[in-house]
Design brief:
Layout (H helix, E strand, L loop, with lengths): L1 E7 L3 E3 L2 H9 L3 E2 L2 H4 L8 E2 L3 H6 L3 E4 L8 H5 L8 H4 L3 E3 L2 H4 L4 H22 L1
Parallel strand pairs: 1-3, 1-5, 5-6
Antiparallel strand pairs: 1-2, 2-4
Helix pairs in contact: 1-7
Length: about 130
């Protein structure tokens, strides 16, 4: 499945490299692989949500460091009602401590959560 991983909501910041790689290991495809190599969040900023809408992710995963991820606010964004993940309710949170901190937690807890989300999607849609 196509996966959009959002590190921040305003502005939208896509997944850093190790998260993008974990998405692949878990069986998904990061919709912004070309941005993942940028180590600084400011270089992974998406100007607006239109590119996310156009890439139409099957799954949206949010991990907003220091801020509660709100799936309902993602679903309510203008134009996002046509995104596959929004239509099917495939919007999830992985806590930043589990995936955005480099180290063992990302490789254990974060990967396990990604794998569960992606495998659950695959059982229904695959």
């Amino acid at each position: 499945p196509r996966v959009y991983f959002e590190e921040w909501d305003t502005p939208h910041i896509s997944a850093i490299r190790w998260v993008s790689e974990l998405i692949g290991i878990a069986g998904g495809d990061d919709i912004f692989p070309e941005l993942a190599a940028q180590s600084l969040g400011k270089n992974r900023i998406l100007a607006d949500g239109s590119e996310i809408i156009q890439r139409n992710p099957d799954i949206i995963i949010g991990s907003w460091c220091g801020k509660k991820f709100r799936p309902e606010s993602v679903a309510a964004r203008p134009g996002w009602g046509e995104v596959a993940a929004v239509k099917t309710g495939q919007i999830f949170e992985i806590k930043s401590a589990d995936i955005l901190q480099p180290g063992p937690a990302a490789l254990t807890d974060g990967l396990a959560q990604l794998h569960r989300i992606i495998m659950d999607w695959s059982r229904v849609h695959g």
